[in-house]
Amino acid sequence: MSWVVLKFGGSSLSINGYNIILNKIKEVSKKHKVVIVLSAINNVTNLLINSSKENNNYDKIFNIHNDAISGLEIDIEQINSKLFKLKNYLDNDTNKIESISYGERLSTLILYELLLKNNLDINLIQADEFIFSNDNNKENSIYLDSSFEGSYEKFNKLIDKDIIITQGFIAGTPDNKTCLLGRGGSDTSAALIANMLNAKNLQIWTDVNGLYTSDPNIIKKSELIKSVGYEQAQELAAMGAKVLHPYCILPCQRKNIPILIKNTYDANSIEFTTIQNTEKYINRLYAITKQSNVSVFNIKSINMWNNYGFVYDIFEKFNRNSIDINIINTSQFVISTTTDEKNINKLINIKNELLQKYEVELINDCSIISIVGDNIKNQRYLPNAIEISKKYKTIKMVQYSANDMTLSFVIDNIDANQIMKELHEELLIEEEAFNDNKKLENKWWISEIDKINNIMKNQSSAYIYNMDFINQQISFLKSNLSSISEIYYSMKANNHKNIINKIANNGIGFECVSINEIEYLRDNLFIENNIMFTPNFCNINEYIDSFKYTNIDITVDNIDLIKNNIPIFENKSIGLRIDLDQGDGHHKNVITEGKKAKFGCYIDDILDNISFLKKNNIKIVGLHSHRGSGIEDYNSWLNTAKKLIELSYKFNTIEWINLGGGFGVNDDNPIDFNSLNKGLSKLNTEIKFYIEPGRFLVSEAGILISKVTQIKQKDNINYIGLNTGMNSLIRPCLYGSYHKIHNLDKIYEKRNKVYNIVGPICETGDVLGHNRLLPETNINDIILIEHGGAYGCVMASSYNMRKPAQEIIL
Question: Which helix (H) or strand (E) covers residue 20, if one does?
């Protein structure tokens, strides 16, 4: 039987994790001989490294292992003996390297006892008996920078079983002492063993399903990378993908041994990353990665020009001070470099040493954001990335990697997550998601394809709306937000009369931003539902006219407007729009709070004018805050409620609080309305809560359909031309909105070609979608653009004298 190497990281070594490991070993050992490589249990290595005679952390280490074995019902005599020996090391503060290795020695001993209990024929081998360094330990050195070689002959003499347990991270030296392979060294150990045994594969088990297109904790839309080459995986790991260590790639690559990254706690999933020899994709981007808390050195000298030896002089100092470096940029008079060294004293020391010969600027609290892909300098996506980067004034460095696989931006920590999100949204293709037909099953338009095709026999382009979906969205909000007293539909999102009537018949109010919208409801459609009037910088006559109508709550966002028009507002009850300075949204042009937003007034402005309002008998009955559009975190509205309730204490007249809208519409990251509802319900207030969803009710209910007019290739970019463009849908041009795009004629065919989807308008910005993966597309194919129900036709124009798409109710 062939060998398979299973490596389990510290996050896998819980009570539940050990039992999962047991089951996985039983499964794999039926077909293969198995080597199990273990890390230390989570946090144990850190505790061992930071132990001293005065504070040896033994009790914490003991408790961690005691918790891990408490539910396993195994013989703990050998484990206690090993813990006792570790205590002696720590008490006497001797043999630091040997004591650090006890994290792995203990974790493997626990698994050994568990497998024995389950009658498996196993052998526990100490890793330093068959993996060797080519260098002896240096004085006070914990991690060695040297190569390691596994000895198959030595290993072969030690084994007499088909299931072997050993440690990661540790090895032996030529003088028969223990050394350590460095943090992440367990991955390296497993790869060396896989190489030595010509293993069928190496499986790295951790707490995620593999490598992702970005950090899923930061970017919810991150997609699993199911297959990637060795070099690409190594680059991803080196640039911030923390799932595996870069050193573990090469030993497997040399023998073409696949590396499988799997999730211990999702052990039976078919979703995981495979690293193996794979075809390079000319246009393939893999991920946006992040390395946090790096420091930048800018080292300057006029003597660098036309001189030699200064590069060695500078970096010899870094080497002597044991400070690693990541990125290096040079010019005639400046060298800039980054380091992830966290010891501030070491950074200050190297700065002071460099200051003896150079001007030195040290910048802390930075991050490296990297775009990782093949043939990076020729990627057609890069102009988009550069445009995004121009918005960020805190970028310190930009670097193309020598291997043509990475473009990196060094930026302040505070801006790192935002630029990651923008780059991921703009550049990465959700190939796996689009080719997963199951994700299309819940789309209402899938069951209506025949009707849509029939409509398109007489149309070149059309907005098509589904009324049942709007009913569904309204019912969802009502049932999931019982703490909300009234819902006001933001009718600027879509004012088609059939949609307005449908919403009115569901008992929903309307949020209007102009007197024209009020007149349309009251005088044209004769709708009497409640109205929330929230204009901005409108003519004062609009307020005068709005007071003539009944069932209207009027909101003012400018104290100066009231002061300049006291006769209009005195003796009236109104709401105030508050700028809480917590703007949010998917693009800068949809953020409606903060210093650069034109909406609302600051709390201090209101507090300074409370006496003025009372003096003129202007009763403040409501407070309103709206942060922006495309928000997905429920805490945004919950925090708004808390802050506005606190402000309401300054008045004795507040009857309602309008939490605004901006609900994001994202299939992959739906808003947690349940938590929002619970949070609002817990707030101790008699004040009514209002919300004003627009997109959420109608966005998915509408699609934009258009026929293909042209197919074109230019500079390796494929273009699909449609019958309509920004004259029908301006959102992508106006604020970079992302709409999923499909070829309706080939909806279930594999997407294998990248296109830019453009319209016929004479503007460079007439692009509906950049770098979209679609099936091979032909002229007259029907293209469907999702989320056309909100801010589509209402923002359309007849620019170039081209009529926008006609609206059709399905």
Answer: helix 15-28
For residues 605 and 477, give the distance between their C-alpha atoms in angstroms, rounded to a whole number. Answer: 34
Q: State which residues form the domain around 157.
A: 3-208+243-275
Q: What is the pLDDT of residue 366?
A: 95
452, 783 Cβ separation under 8 angstroms: no
Q: Which of 650, 675, 693 is the last residue of a domain?
A: 693
Query: Burial code of 253-277, b = ≥16 C-beta within 10 A, e = fewer?
Result: beeebbbbbbbbbeeeeeebbbbbe
The pLDDT tens digits for 76-126 are: 888 888 888 888 888 877 778 888 888 999 999 999 999 999 999 999 999
Torsion of CA 139, 140, 142, 144, to 10 degrees: -30
Number of domains present in the structure of the chain: 4
- The first and second tokens of residue 623, run together, are 């407070």
In a domain, 350, yes or no: yes
Type of residue found at 429: I
Hey, what are 771's tokens? Answer: 């770098």
8 A C-beta contact, residue 463 and residue 806? yes
Among candidate residues 406, 428, 450, the one where a domain is terminated: 428
With the C-alpha atoms ordered 248, 251, 253, 257, is the resulting torsion angle positive or negative? negative
Least Cα distance to 99 among 29, 52, 132 occurs for 52
77-92 helix and 102-117 helix, angle to the nearest 10 degrees? 170
Distance set, CA 493 to CA 113, 125, 700, 787, 788 (Å): 64, 67, 12, 11, 10
Low-confidence ranges of the chain (pLDDT < 50): 139-146, 280-282, 430-433
Pairing of strands 359-373, 285-300: antiparallel
Question: Is 37:186 a contact under the CB 8 Å cutoff?
Answer: yes
Tokens 């198995």 belong to residue:
34
**Does residue 35 fall inside a structural domain?**
yes
Let me know whether 176 and 249 are in one domain: yes
28 C-beta neighbours (distance < 10 Å), count? 17
Task: Indicate whether 678 and 737 sit together in one domain.
Answer: no
Q: Are residues 778 and 634 in the same domain?
A: no
Is 216 within a domain? no
Answer yes or no: is 533 within a domain: yes
210 torsion bin: left (phi>0), alpha (psi -120 to 50), beta (else) = left
599 and 664 in a single domain? The answer is yes
Distance CA 179, CA 147 (A): 12
23 with 171, same domain: the answer is: yes
State how far the Cα of 232 lies from the Cα of 372, in Å rounded to an integer. Answer: 8
Question: Coil, strand or helix: which one is 232?
Answer: helix
Cβ pair 606, 578 in contact under 8 A: yes
HEC string of 366-388 equals EEEEEEEECCHHHCCCHHHHHHH
Could you tell me if 315 and 407 lie in one domain?
Answer: yes
Q: Which residues contact 295 (CB under 8 A, 6 or more apart)?
A: 338, 339, 340, 341, 347, 362, 363, 364, 365, 366
- Residues 185 and 293 reside in one and the same domain: no
Which helix (H) or strand (E) covers residue 479, if one does? helix 467-480
* Mean pLDDT for all residues in the chain: 88
pTM here is 0.59
| pLDDT tens figures, 766-776 | 999 987 889 99
Q: CA Rg, the chain, in Å?
A: 32
Of 517, 533, 514, give the one whose Cα is nearest residue 624. 533
Q: Are residues 440 and 555 in the same domain?
A: no
Q: Are the beta carbons of 532 and 690 closer than 8 angstroms?
A: yes
Three-state DSSP at 123 gives strand
What phi and psi values does residue 348 have, to the nearest 5 degrees? Answer: -65, -40
| Residue 379 belongs to domain with CATH number | 3.30.2130.10
Instruction: List beta partners, residue 556.
Output: 576
Q: How far is CA 544 from CA 488, 530, 554, 570, in A?
A: 22, 18, 11, 12
